[in-house]
Inverse folding.
């Protein structure tokens, strides 16, 4: 098993997110099933990938000392799926992510 350094892991996650944003921006339908995630659609995968950095930013900003659930994190997720690619590509409010 190959072990990645922290930097390699961050680079791999960023590259995966860029590929997902590009796929969505190219017009892929948000209801398209994700073969490697049975039962998930591209909309589900987009919400998952966009939720994690927003949840982490929320924990840091509020200096959480107790467990905080991602479902209690303000996501600013659009109701309409059309702007999901832009939402995924936009860093969480208040973060220093470029």
């Amino acid at each position: 098993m190959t072990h990645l350094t922290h930097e390699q892991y961050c680079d791999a996650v960023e590259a995966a997110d860029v590929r997902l944003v590009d796929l969505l921006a190219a017009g892929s339908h948000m209801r398209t099933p994700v073969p490697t995630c049975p039962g998930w659609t591209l909309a589900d995968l987009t919400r998952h990938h966009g939720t994690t950095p927003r949840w982490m930013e929320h924990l840091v900003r509020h200096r959480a000392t107790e467990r905080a659930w991602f479902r209690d994190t303000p996501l600013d997720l659009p109701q309409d799926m059309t702007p999901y690619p832009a939402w995924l590509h936009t860093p969480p409010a208040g973060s220093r992510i470029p």
